[in-house]
Amino acid sequence: MILREQLITQGVSEKLLDDVEKFKAFYALTDQNLTSRVPQTETVFYGKDIWAMCISALLEEENILLSGPKATGKNVLADNICELFGRPQWNTSFHVNTDSASLIGTDTFIDNEVKLRRGSVYECAIHGGFGVFDEINMAKNDALVVLHSALDYRKIIDVPGYEKIGLHEATRFIGTMNYEYAGTKELNEALVSRFMTIDIPQIKEETLMVILKNNFADANEEMLSQFAGVFLDLQAKSRNSEISTKSVDLRGIIGSLKTIRRGLKPMLAVDMGVIGKSFDQYEKEIVLDVIRTRIRESWEAEDIFPER
Ligand SMILES: Nc1ncnc2c1ncn2[C@@H]1O[C@H](COP(=O)(O)OP(=O)(O)OP(=O)(O)O)[C@@H](O)[C@H]1O
Ligand SMILES: [Mg+2]
Q1: Which of ligand 1's atoms lies nearest the C-alpha of 50?
Q2: Strand partners, 175
Q3: How do the domains of the chain map onto residue ranges?
Q4: 125-167: pLDDT as tens digits
């Protein structure tokens, strides 16, 4: 099913999606180098309110900042958005050594002349791309000041010594951040002010089953709900401060189910996908106790995936 249809099924407003179609048609891509940058993803982000927030903000020329706990689908959503709007994506992973040169460009000698070797933000801006600033709060705030003029009403990139560049009208920026990870910095107020911020909440029970069923349509549903249960039980324990958030990891649950589908014994799979996420012996024991109430040692891959 195409993305638009899936979003209608989720309950996203058709009117909003029609407006996206108009945007897409108005800025239609012709250059193969650009169309090849439009992501095509199998997984579709599930969450109609978040979709509505993202789409309306982007149509109104706003930039968006997706913030939330780990494995809540922020990158999946960012990719889906580019695909829905039919825009080429430039993805930049931010880290402590990200500096303005790596974003905008660096001086290089070409034919005895100093020229700018364009960085990802520069390329994105002139081609009307959707720039994904991944883990934006990993970078030092000083490095990001150079983005301010690109992110507000001025819509320009100002590189000292070069001409000012105006952003292509279709350009948007999507930041993702996880405020729990080690090494993250408090984002500067001036930077945050330039985004509409969208809080992606921790996954809830109903959403979880939909995501798992979408990913594993060939699994026994009752068994899938046990895996969902493992996640939810661990989430509850973490909320009560009995364990850390390390093992509360949807990515790990999905990874476990994939290896089970491949034929691995369920207990071995969750050992890798869930228990192994914690490196504290005491915590591991608690996690294992939770898992034992849901997943039997004797289960084989065929118990979960009958058609294997
Ligand atoms: N709402 C959701 N809809 C669809 N898939 C989801 C959703 N939430 C989580 N997932 C699944 O969780 C996994 C992780 O997604 P993703 O990499 O986008 O997370 P993230 O929020 O960027 O995490 P991190 O903060 O660790 O970078 C993917 O397999 C994705 O399909
Ligand atoms: Mg991510």
Answers
A1: 1
A2: 65, 133
A3: 3-199, 205-304
A4: 999 999 999 999 999 888 899 899 999 999 999 877 778 899 9
Distance CA 93, CA 181 (A): 15
Of 81, 206, 211, best ligand 1 pocket probe by most atoms within 8 Å of the beta carbon: 211
How far is 238 from 250, CA to CA, in rounded Å? Answer: 14
Q: Is 72 within 8 Å of 205 (Cβ atoms)?
A: no
Domain 3-199 bears CATH identifier 3.40.50.300: yes
Give the tens place of pLDDT for each residue, 5-57.
999 999 999 999 999 999 999 999 999 999 999 999 999 999 999 999 999 99
What residues are in contact with ligand 1 under a 6 Å CB criterion?
43, 45-47, 70-76, 176, 178, 203, 207, 211, 250-251, 254
Q: What is the pTM of this model?
A: 0.94
Q: Closest by alpha carbon to 46, among 173, 196, 203, 199?
A: 203
